[in-house]
Amino acid sequence: METEHVIKDIEIIKLMLDPRRFRIMKFATDEPITVKQLAEKLDEKPSRLYYHVNKMEELGLLKLVETKQQGNLIEKYYQTDKDVSRSYNIDPVAAQQNSSVIMQELSRITNQALQVIEQGILAGPNSEQQCESKVAYKSMTKKQWEKKLKAYDVIMGAKDDVNHILLNDEKEEENHANSEQSQVNDEKEDYVFVMLAYRLKDAENN
User: Fold this and answer.
1) CA distances (Å), origin 71, targets 10, 14, 75, 174
2) How far apart are CA 96 and CA 165, in angstroms?
């Protein structure tokens, strides 16, 4: 089941772009875990993680599965919700109102990637860093561009229907090319696709 969520809260937007969110979900996947245990794995203070965990529970990324009484304290155990696959989109109005914050977060991620890639290039072919950059220029219609974006979404989400999407995309392009009316009505534009991929550990070591 695929559920799409529209995010309006800027703090949640920042959370979704924070690598700690991914790591929290990873550590909470196999078995229930407390904030204190997460803090030990992430080498963070528990006080810095409570906010993230509470927001992730609010979003449905984590669910509270157990509570235990330890003296005067109640330990809460969280686990990643595996039942529902979700995609998240930023509300256009929220994006417009918080464009500077969003661009700051995207710049941080992009700059990390560029730094890791530069270090990998400087280290030469024997570099242990894991990073990759790809650039592709394409001439296509708006509809074809939208289909490509959908295919990339599927690939990055590691969904099972990736081959189905790509095959349908190729068939549609073939049918599109064979339609004279479509060629008249759909004007092609030039697009550029940029992919940056890197290992988080390498970014932390820079």
Assistant:
1) 37, 35, 10, 68
2) 31
Token code pair at residue 163: 């081959």
Torsion sign across C-alpha atoms 140, 143, 144, 149: positive
Write out the two tokens for 61: 């990324």
> What residue ranges do the domains of the chain occupy?
2-90, 92-205
**Strand-pair category, 131-140 with 189-198:** antiparallel
Q: Kindly indicate whether the domain formed by 2-90 is annotated with CATH number 1.10.238.10.
A: no
> What DSSP designation does 66 have?
E
Burial readout 91-110 (b: 16 or more C-beta within 10 A, e: otherwise): eeebbeebeeebeebeeeee
**Residue written as tokens 């790809």?**
134
Q: What angle do CA 96, 99, 101 make, to 5 degrees?
A: 140
Nearest to 21 by CA among 2, 44, 40, 49: 49
pTM of the model: 0.67
On whether the CB atoms of residues 79 and 25 are closer than 8 A, the answer is no
Written as six digits, the tokens of 146 are 């939208």
Please state, in angstroms and rounded to a whole number, the distance separating the CA atoms of residues 154 and 162.
6
pLDDT tens digit string along 108-156?
A: 999 999 999 999 899 888 888 889 999 999 999 999 999 888 888 777 7
